[in-house]
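Postdoc handover notes: sequence design on the structure in folder B. Input tokens:
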């Protein structure tokens, strides 16, 4: 089941104004995903930054089963050598 279909609850944003730019990027997503994005971005400046930084990738995985997304990430990580991975994990 995709994240889009399995998301029913979301955090209440502590600072809703922090979520406005993230919500603008994800405006075409269904209401439940926008609630998740808005709640997350409005509660955590760090996660808000990640949502903005990874917005293109996130938009592609909302309709995918989270287990498949995780398997893809794991395969991508294990395919890299330690030296390459050590550098890539430190990129901002």
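Designed sequence:
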């Amino acid at each position: 089941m995709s994240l889009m279909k399995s998301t029913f609850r979301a955090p209440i944003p502590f600072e809703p104004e922090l979520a406005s730019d993230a919500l603008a990027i994800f405006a075409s997503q269904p209401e439940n995903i926008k609630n998740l994005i808005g709640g997350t971005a409005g509660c955590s400046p760090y996660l808000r930054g990640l949502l903005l930084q990874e917005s293109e990738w996130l938009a592609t995985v909302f309709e995918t089963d989270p287990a498949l997304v995780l398997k893809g990430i794991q395969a991508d990580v294990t395919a890299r050598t330690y030296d390459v991975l050590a550098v890539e994990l430190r990129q901002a």
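Context for whoever picks this up: DSSP finds seven helices and no strands in the chain. Don't rerun without checking with the PI first.
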